């Protein structure tokens, strides 16, 4: 199974964000940039699937100006096999990103697309689901656990007595559910983080899966792997070559700092705190 | 024009978050609520009884029972004709389904709107709430997820007309295996008046439980930071922050929470914030309306006695 992982270059999560004085956006000049942390988790998951023999190849994709190649190299150093860079020098909104990824999916023919559940810059959380809609694929959003069940080639993996056990499981513990009936059927079991608690879905492959925080802890690329990544293939496609309608559908009118809260006060003990909550803030 | 609200429900009860979406859209037009499920008549009836709802569209089918995005999105896209907006609350459900609808209709989406300025202009947080952008959307229908805590819940007192719609054929590319409903007798985090929230400073699951006693005494919901969840003090669904839930109660009491920006993103719109921490330099102490520096456990004991 081939996996495509999408990564976005965003402001580093530790950087304090400053809004530009003219309200046109966030000041990115000279600011440390990094791979979106949720996309990093997606890369890690794909690489682990390859290490366990479930994935055969991991392709990593990023959209943006030439600098996004830094993030692609990071993903290659983590273990992806090759990279695709769709060169775009203007802002790409989620709908446009989904169209570009769909076009790359047509070229690369993966059976699964992995990406973060949201980017920590625009916090939209839309691209994966839009992509799944465009491809007609199933979707596993906010994934905290992914198991893949693939059919083995005919003649392999037969259990005793000829009973078919044509399934290889990614996790050590077997799925509690009955195995799929019939040959040639592959699916993913995705446990999602939802508001009420974990929800587990079975998705026919191909599928789009978006990674949540607890799917895994991404590795740090080692120095030898960073060196090795420099010679891994990286293909650049000019966005115009894909011939898509990627014009922004959303116009940003202004960007502002959040309203400041009025300065707080220190209280010396619990008695004073309770008194203030009762008589000053009137919330108790 | 009218607005189509996608109801979130479990076939028995309507989610409180949907009540807030109903309030959010009042300025946009007539509110119609789509209730898709199986055996969900009680939900449709509850929606029809909300002030501000003029029509309820009910669709029943076995494949709509589990709220799967793959089944709901084509249905909503099919029903979207003639609607100016398609709206749901920005919960795990809304965030899952709405972008899929937008993808099918080839339209843009506004995530997590906190303010509706005009029918095509909205305010939403970006960078974990460290900035707010005002955006204008081109094209129709406009798909919006609204942040539940930014709007009041619609009240009873409506008498909407009811209409049954025929379902589409099943897409059948996904199915529900299991859903664990966290047993929680406390108020819902998203709608609670008071939230008591704990961080890694509590030091153990046992101490977290001690904090929960205080929450129970206050009739409060319990929240947690990512660090507390990762340390195993609390289940994932209690996480407050950029990747967890965004809450905005009347009173938020943060105990042993340092205040990473990702956590602050999920609670800084609370009306009154109390922080109790042994480190007076913790970022949350700057944000808090009332900050108490000292031993957490002494403070917990004293609070339990005072309240």
How would you describe this structure to a colleague?
The complex is a heterodimer of chains A (284) and B (307). Chain A is α/β, with parallel strands linked by helices and 284 residues long. Chain A has a single domain (2-279), classed as HUPs (Rossmann fold, 3-Layer(aba) Sandwich). Chain A is 23% helix and 29% strand. Chain A contains six helices and 14 strands. Chain A has helices at residues 37-51, 69-78, 94-108, 127-135, 223-229, 270-279; strands spanning 2-6, 9-11, 33-35, 57-64, 82-87, 112-116, 138-150, 168-169, 187-194, 197-204, 207-211, 234-238, 250-256, 265-267. In chain A, strands 1, 4, 5, 6, 7, 8, 9, 10, 11 and 12 form a ten-stranded mixed sheet that branches. Chain B is α/β, with parallel strands linked by helices. Chain B folds into two domains: 2-165, Rossmann fold; 194-306, Rossmann fold. Chain B has helices spanning 16-24, 41-48, 69-79, 92-105, 205-218, 226-230, 261-264, 283-287, 296-306, and strands spanning 2-6, 30-37, 53-60, 83-89, 109-113, 115-118, 121-126, 131-137, 142-146, 161-165, 174-179, 194-198, 221-224, 251-255, 272-277, 290-293. In chain B, the strands form three sheets. A seven-stranded parallel sheet of chain B has the order 5-9-4-1-2-3-10, with helices on both faces. Chain B has a five-stranded parallel sheet with strand order 13-12-14-15-16. In chain B, a hairpin with a 4-residue loop joins strand 7 (121-126) and strand 8 (131-137). In chain B, helix 3 crosses helix 4 (92-105). Chain B starts with a strand and ends with a helix. The mean pLDDT of chain B is 95. The interface between A and B is large, with 79 and 85 residues.
Assigned CATH class of the largest domain in chain B:
Alpha Beta
Distance between the termini of chain B: 50 Å
Q: What is the architecture of the largest domain in chain B at the second tier of CATH?
A: 3-Layer(aba) Sandwich
And the CATH topology of chain A?
Rossmann fold
What is the first-to-last residue Cα distance of chain A? 58 Å
SS-derived structural category of chain B: alpha/beta
Mean pLDDT of chain A: 89
User: How large a portion of the residues of chain A is in β-strands, by DSSP E?
Assistant: 25-35%
Give the radius of gyration of chain A. 23 Å
Largest sheet of chain A: 10 strands, mixed
Give the beta-strand count of chain B.
16
Coarse morphology of chain B: elongated
SSE order of chain B, one letter for each helix or strand: EHEHEHEHEEEEEEEEHEHEHEHEH
